[in-house]
UniProtKB/TrEMBL annotation, chains A, B:
Domain Globin-sensor as annotated: residue spans: 22-192
Organism: Hymenobacter volaticus
Protein name: Protoglobin domain-containing protein
InterPro entries attached to this UniProt entry: Globin-like_sf (IPR009050), Globin-sensor_dom (IPR044398), Globin/Proto (IPR012292), Protoglobin (IPR012102)
Pfam family for this entry, one: Protoglobin
Length: 193, 193
């Protein structure tokens, strides 16, 4: 995928995260993240990359079927189609990045940027969107479940063994939880993250 | 389990949650929670109840093996044994309640109380503990993974079929994510939960 052509995708060009690499290391330990997960995610990246559009169809179908979710892409009940399309391209890149990027300073910084783009600090700005000014935190956390549950059939499409699918799925769950946690930073009262 | 003998366990006797039942219903939809999950959790409750102590041994072993987690039960590096013991009894009851209680107003209210007891608002008060005044939110969210991953062997101990174990595990994951979400409320800036 040619990442530089994705509007608003600014990986490697954003401000530093307030979370340190040392703190990230402890979060990785807490979600039981190991070298085996890095390898399983690399394999998942290969399996998922050609299916990105189909995955996004499922996720956008889920959002579109639930007005209380679609509202975050809407203003006064009117969805912003251009906004939905621009976010979709970055969401697809997020799948690949989650599986293949090293979880280093640049990755950490970009997780914070993604978090900010869900809040009043930066939502809609990147895309000039006409939409609600904030996605409530409760949906970032609860989305861990649909993002984890719906990925399994796609992991099973790659011709991998059952054990490999289980390993990829477990690693994906850890990675999604890690990012949802990092994305929550801008929502939290000072000193309580 | 005789719940009334658990120190600090105040189910049904706490203040009203700021989250409404209508909002809870949308969170349940977001984690794909269905009537089948209620049934699977009821079965899980029967499987897990006699294993509560063994489960808590695993979870306390995890916390005890990580100084950055044990510190939340400690002050100036000194763990508070009485606090650890009192929390353990309630944590065991939480396993049972998560599986067997209806997710009604009383349940919703108690999730908020549990959230508050992780923050400066109420931490240590219930138990007269000598410990850090706050558990950082990032560990509530990341704990979704170890609480979900470590429960599976215990679900497998009940003589249930593979499909039943998968259903119980999926329902447990949804329930844990739902509670972690509700527990985050007191940490979040006004209007952003």
């Amino acid at each position: 995928m040619e990442t530089t052509n994705i509007p608003g995708y600014a990986y490697g060009q954003v401000n530093r995260s307030p979370v340190t690499l040392a703190e990230l290391e402890l979060l990785k330990q807490t979600v039981l993240f190991s070298a085996a997960d890095v390898a399983a995610l690399a394999q998942a990246g290969q399996v998922l990359a050609p299916q990105t559009d189909a995955i996004l169809d499922v996720w956008y179908g889920f959002v579109g079927a639930h007005p209380y979710l679609l509202r975050y892409f809407s203003l006064h009940g009117q969805p912003d189609g251009a906004y939905l399309a621009r976010v979709r391209a970055r969401f697809g890149q997020w799948i690949i990045d989650l599986c293949t990027k090293p979880y280093d300073q640049a990755w950490l910084d970009y997780q914070h940027e993604i978090g900010l783009r869900h809040t009043t600090a930066k939502k809609n700005l990147t895309d000039g969107a006409q939409a609600e000014p904030l996605i409530h935190l409760r949906y970032l956390t609860t989305f861990i479940v649909p993002l984890t549950a719906t990925i399994k059939p796609f992991l099973q499409n790659g011709g991998s063994s059952t054990d490999e699918v289980e390993a990829m799925h477990a690693a994906w769950f850890k990675a999604v939880t890690l990012t949802a946690t990092l994305w929550s930073y801008p929502y939290v009262k000072e000193g309580q993250f």
